[in-house]
Amino acid sequence: MEDPRDATEAILRQRTLALMLFRHAYAEEPDETLLELLASEPAVASIEAFAVDGHHELDRLAQTMRSLSQNNDAAQTLAALRREYTTLFIGPEKIVAPFWESVYLDPRELLFLESTTDVRKRYEAEGYRIDAETREAEDGIVYELDFLAHLADRSLEALRRDDRQEFGRLVEVQRSFEHDHLLTWLPLFAERAKGARTDCLYPTLCAAVAAFIAVDAALLEELAGTA
């Protein structure tokens, strides 16, 4: 019979990998490195590990990732992904799915609102730093996912050294961050992404990241009850 602690460590490893994968996918325009990462077996497995409770969005993403490994024209695929990424997240026309939290919490779709300030304070409380020279709002999806990945890695370390107090604290920090922030806007983000003219990857990815955080929030609730 598998040790419960081993099972917890295994799912936390998959969780960390999935968070890093999502973060990488949004961080910049797609390139060959991203294609290789998406098509890799460990990356696909990390998504499949969370495809539970009827969250078909994660199954669809895993299928899309597998199809990338079978594509014989990487250059054409990459060109299509870059067009889709630009249309959804950059412009030059009206951005279909902005990836900043505050846009979805205010009808004026403004940046640097009160929610952004709260995100910044939570980063600072955990020693998470963003390059001082960046002028992007701290509540962008890349930063929020990177913050969670950072805490997920620290949670794994606490579990391995049997530091139950720190593990429980980190679980609660992540649980409250997802509840107060990511869960409030990612479903809206995913809905906006459906407006893309194509679905080579990113609309599926947006639906999957919203589903992943919903599953992850339930996992953190469970871990909080046992920490």
TrEMBL record:
Pfam families: Nitrate_red_del
Keywords: Chaperone
Xref: InterPro entries: DMSO/NO3_reduct_chaperone, TorD-like_sf, TorD/DmsD_chaperones
SUPFAM superfamilies: TorD-like (SSF89155)
Domain of life of the source: Bacteria
Descriptive protein name: Dehydrogenase
Organism for this UniProt entry: Eggerthella guodeyinii
